[in-house]
Amino acid sequence: MLSYQRINAAIAQLPEVDVLTTDAYYQGGGTAQLLEMLRDGSQFAARQQKPLLITEYGGSPHADSMGNLVKQAHLGIWTGFFNEAPAAPMFWWFALVDEKDLYSYHAALARFSAGEDRRGLTPALRTVAENIALSELRGPDRLLAWGFDTAYYLVDDENAKPALHSGFSLETPALAPGNYLAEIWDVAKGEPVETREVAVAQGQSSIRLPLPPFRLDVAVKIKPRPAVP
Predict the structure, then answer these.
(1) C-beta separation of 104 from 116 below 8 A
(2) Are 56 and 76 within 8 A, CB to CB?
(3) pTM score, two decimals?
């Protein structure tokens, strides 16, 4: 395994070191292990109180199947965004990005993240439904969330067909009382497809936001509704 676990803690703690860097390659654990390394690396960086930049990732040190690498090109950068990476993890197979025209992966995340200040937001990961994992960045009055289909993305099968998820609702602890706008994003296109009003009452414990049918993944932003002049 090539990951943050190879970083020498004594060197990492030197005051002259501003940024930690590492690779993220797994040994036998597949895409699930890659995502675990990215998340655990962020937690390691938090303990060191220094940002951790992933300078290479994608498969094992001995590569992987084409299907897994294409999935990881997408999963890696979104996982990085939701786990406090200082910049998007850097996909080693840069030629593959060009050959398979995967530039849209980066463009979509750039549009979703535009103008979003992640400072002060707390990351979390949880399973919210069968085969759906949800990454969150949460503040008292703001929520960014990204849910993805684990049955598709984490399976070692190049011919897997993504299921249609319908009737799914995002349920999350309530934000501070107030009026909010919830944007539901098409992740592949990198654009909001629907905006709804959400009101949180005093003493309310949770928010339930029904989502339109989706395949692969879906993203949500819930932010305070702008004051009317």
Answers:
(1) no
(2) no
(3) 0.93
d(Cα 145, Cα 61) in Å, to the nearest integer?
Answer: 31
The answer to whether residue 1 scores a pLDDT higher than 70 is no
Which residue spans within 13-121 are E strands per DSSP? 20-24, 52-57
Q: Give CA–CA dist 164/114, Å, rounded.
A: 28
**Beta 52-57 vs 20-24: how paired, if at all?**
parallel
Give, in order, the Cα–Cα distances in Å from 175 to each of 123, 204, 211, 219: 15, 9, 18, 17
Whole-angstrom distance, CA of residue 118 vs CA of residue 85: 10
> Which residue(s) pair with 179 in the sheet?
199
Cβ pair 69, 58 in contact under 8 A:
yes
Tokens 């990476």: give the residue.
85
The model's pLDDT over 10-51, given as tens digits with 9 standing for 90+, comes to 888 999 999 999 999 998 889 999 999 999 999 999 889 999
- Strand stretches in the chain, DSSP E: 20-24, 52-57, 122-129, 132-139, 142-149, 164-165, 169-173, 178-186, 191-200, 206-210, 214-215, 217-224
